[in-house]
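2024-03-11 09:14:02 DEBUG pipeline.ingest accepted 1 chain
2024-03-11 09:14:02 DEBUG pipeline.ingest length=128
2024-03-11 09:14:03 DEBUG pipeline.predict start
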Amino acid sequence: AAPTALSPRVAPERLADRLEQQREHYDHTRVIVPADVDQAMAFLDLVVSTARAQDPADAGRPLWITPSGTLSPEEAHRLVTGIAREMAAGRLPRRPCSPSRPPPSTRTGCRLCSAAPTDSRGPPVGGP
């Protein structure tokens, strides 16, 4: 069976093992972040720093980020802006990935596609 997404429920001492399981099944890292923006950013930092400690190349794997709860437009904007800022600074992978784009009516204030850096493989996809 394919591994489940990483979430803050994963014990910190198991995070490296779970990253390894995901590496065997996916070309990205599946992460469920808390609906609290500050906690979400801290968890993303933990995931990427753990991946970087295992294998520096792994820190660049795209993140499939899914919030664990509903975000207001303002919170979504803060999360997306924080992710884009960390991507631009090289602290998060430069290519996020998402299973789908949210419908236009839920994207108010949420502009991951325009805020995130792009590279030669194409534009980033989706957003929280």
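2024-03-11 09:14:41 DEBUG pipeline.report The chain has a mean pLDDT of 78.
2024-03-11 09:14:41 DEBUG pipeline.predict end
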